[in-house]
Amino acid sequence: MSYYKSALSAVTWCAKQWPNNHALVLSITNSVNENQMLCKKWLVDELKDILDSDNEAIKNPKILVIAGWFGLVGEMCRTRLKAEVTVMDRDVLCEPVGRKMYPEIKHKWGNVETWDNFDFDIIICTSCEHISDKVLKEFLLKKDEKTLVVLQSNDYFSVEEHINCKRSLRDFANSQKLQIIKETELKVDGYTRFMIFGL
Fold it and tell me: Which of these, 180, 136, 179, 172, lies nearest to 152 by C-alpha position?
C-alpha cells in the first residue's frame, strides 16, 4: 500500500471515529505532503548510505523515532532498512491513527521529557524545531554512547508551532552535544531542512 493510500484510508477511518475533527484530517494529509515525503526519503537514503559504508553497522537495526507524528519516516526505515521501528509522539491521537496508517511498526504514546526506553541502535527526530535544545539535550544524554542519532530541523520560522528553528546548518549542529559524523542540508519549497548524524 502506498503512503498516500495509507493516509486516505486513515482519513476515512478518522472521519467515522471523530467526525468533527477537521484538524486531524488536515494533519494526516500534511504528513504525506511533497515536502514531508522528500525530507523523510532524504533522511532514509542518507542513513542507508552510512549504514552500508560501515562494516560494523548493525543489520536490521532497532530504531526509535521521537516526536514521530503518524510514523512516515518510521515506515520508510522499516521497508528500506529492514528495521524494527518504534514511533513515539505526545499527541494521543498519533498512536491510534499511526497504527491505522502503518500497522507494521510500533506506535507509542509518550513525551521526550519522561521517555525511559533507550534500548535502540538508532534514534531519529525529524521535529527538532518543535522541541527546545535543553529538552533534546537532556533526552539524548540518556542514550547509550554507541547509539547513532539522526536529527532534522529547519529555518521555517513562520510556523507558530516551530519554537526552535535554526538559521543555518552550523547553528543546528552546534546546538547539540554530539560527535558529528555528517551534516547536510536540503532546500525544499519554502524553507531549508537541516540534518545531522552523530553519536
Answer: 172
Q: Number of structural domains, the chain?
A: 1
User: Does residue 24 sit within a domain?
Assistant: no
Tens digit of pLDDT for each residue in 100-136?
A: 999 999 999 999 999 999 999 999 999 999 999 999 9
- Secondary structure element (H or E) that encloses residue 170, with its range: helix 169-174
Give the domain CATH number at 160.
3.40.50.150
Assess if residue 144 is contained within a domain.
yes
- 86-120 burial, b if ≥16 CB within 10 A, otherwise e? bbbbeeebbbbbbbbbbeebbbeebebeeeeeeeb
| Global confidence as pTM | 0.95
Q: What is the tens place of the pLDDT at every residue in 86-97? A: 999 999 999 999
Is 145 within the bounds of a domain? Answer: yes
Is 25 among the domain residues? no
Q: Model confidence over 152-182: pLDDT tens digits?
A: 999 999 999 999 999 999 999 999 999 999 9
CA distance to 32, 93, 151, per residue, from 28 (Å)? 7, 11, 22
Which residue in the block uniquely carries the three cell numbers 536540503?
186
